Amino acid sequence: MKARLLALAATAAPCALLPLPALAVEPGEVVETYADIAAATYADSLATAQELRAAVGALIAAPSEATLRAAREAWIAARVPYQQSEAFRFGNAIVDDWEGRVNAWPLDEGLIDYVDPTYGNGSEENDYAVLNVVATPKFTLSGTEVDATEITPALISGTLHEADGIEANVASGYHAIEFLLWGQDLNGTEAGAGNRPHTDYLQGEGCTGGNCDRRAAYLTAATDLLVSDLDHMVAQWAEGGAARAAVTADPLKGLQAMLTGMGSLSYGEQAGERMKLGLMLNDPEEEHDCFSDNTHNSHYYDGLGVRNVYLGEYRRVDGSLVEGPSLSDLVAGADAALDTRLKAELDASVARLDAIRSAVAGGMAYDQMLAAGNKEGEALIMAAVDALVTQTASIERATTALGIGGIEFEGSDSLDNPNAVFQ
Asked: Dihedral sign, CA of 15, 308, 39, 219?
């Protein structure tokens, strides 16, 4: 669902800071740190995607329970840095225009491969919801004959992804790969993730699900495409890259991007579309990582990514720390009490998201938290939602304290107009 925008009032001109006390840091320094963190986060995302590609190659070469498990573990590891990168969305057009290729959700997975009969025969909204490209080497798409005999990254990105202009036709990215590794999660609001067997990748005798060669080709092509897409984004944030230049050329616009990304991810995207909406609908299909049941981790790392941007620090996969002059330093110079408050609220939201992870480790799956009547699960999710909403209000206060206008945060009907969710 396309969320509406929540416009934030600002009394100053869009690109002029209010007079502030002597600054401990300069806006340009803060934006350089932001770009450095983006570069490191996407570099880690690329490196872990390359490790995923190697694990997928091992699975295809020798399908077994062990190689399938290793590929799944590599996918989960790859989510750790990528989810932290989502704080660079919304305020950066280069990222926004690209993001749908790598992390779009939810998806009509029947476009890609076989699904359970309970999935149905498609919908009025999407004629291709059960196309099953893995089993269909030739088909008609929007009146054009498509030869999908060879499944390639170009076929996925240029023809299948968002086929016929339908956003639910997600053919590429992390979630397409997730589906191919786990299969559908048919457990509803009970515990349990997808349970695709490794035999879905056996070539010849023993193949389950049919078309194991084409399934392997699709998984390989989708993983290659993910690596290519991430390599592209790493280049955008490198020295001389377009995304880095876009935020550093005008530090005030860079600060706008930082605050927009923080507020939009906190509020409309995470608190609203990814968390409260699923709870309102009691629908596990609204889980972000719905096939793997990794949603609790993705939520946590999204929250961590917002805090990274404010504090000007990022802990890399190898344990090293990227840090520098921060938005926190800048806000502290304008309103020390607000900086203290916002840092405490960011810590609180990360802690509430971590409490969800702890509950999952203790035996309550995120699916189960979404079940109607699960008061404990509802309380865990809503505590995190409330903390994210609270910190968003302070992010708005920070824009006022710095005198930065031109800010819009992404909204969500689940937060702004709950009745619309059920219409």
From this structure: negative
Q: Which pTM was predicted?
A: 0.93
Q: Name the strand (E) or helix (H) holding 350.
A: helix 336-361
The one-letter code for the residue type at 220 is T
Measured distance CA(92)–CA(221) in Å, rounded: 28
Q: Which domain holds residue 46?
A: 5-421
Q: Are the C-beta atoms of residues 197 and 16 closer than 8 Å to each other? A: no
Does the pLDDT at position 7 exceed 50? no
First to last CA, the chain: 13
What is the pLDDT, as a whole number, of residue 397? 96
Q: Which CATH number covers residue 401?
A: 1.20.1420.20
DSSP secondary structure letters along 10-51: -SS-TT-PPP-SSPSS-HHHHHHHHHHHHHHHHHHHHHHHHH
Length of the chain, in residues: 423
| Reported confidence tier of residue 342, pLDDT bands at 50, 70, 90 | very high
- Looking at the 3D structure of the chain, how many domains does it have? 1
